[in-house]
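Notes to self, TIGR02453 family protein:
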Amino acid sequence: MLQSTITKETFDFLKALEKNNNREWFNGYKAEFKAREAEVKDFFEALRERLESHDDIERSKLFRIYRDVRFSHDKTPYKTHFAGSFSRLGAHLRGGYYLHLQPGESFAATGFWNPNKDDLFRIRKEFEQDASDLREIMNAPKFKDIWGSLQGDAVKTAPKGFDKNHENIDLIKRKQFIFLRKFSDEEVLSRQFIDDVDRAFKAIRPFFDYMSDVLTTNLNGESILD
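result:
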């Protein structure tokens, strides 16, 4: 049976790792790391089962704890968190889920981190035509209570070919379309944490359904998929 909770021992290990982020210490606690990693893997598998009850998940991934320090000024060898992602199925369902577990810094994230050039242009053209459906989704009380406001980077002025005075220029200027929900340590270590995460991810579906519809059709609403 899959482990469906995150224990205090896992956060204790991450706290100790933050204070002793070196290979000598880590190698001395390798068995403990393997036990904590196994627990988190089980949790992510259990969460994937929850997600698959209301969405189509193509793949999931638990990220390695080892840092790539080749091009970084920070040479500490290990991440001080566990994190993983879930990708939705194929070209029809866009968007993905991310969960970050770290003492004092845990959060769930969803959305579109860096849309490719074609997708970003298509999204902007949709907003140029009409963004009322998206605003209705984002302003729904239940949605807003869980996910707050839209986040992500934006260009400083209107993208080329778009009117800087357009009524939806606040959305058109965006390069990323992200929602974040933070969790306290108490919430993460509670027995209902997996329910809370699944509930939050389920609540993002109206946004994903909207964006999936935009990215699989042209401006006339005709499918662009084969």
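- Residues 30-52 form the longest helix (23 residues).
- The first strand starts at residue 57 and ends at 62.
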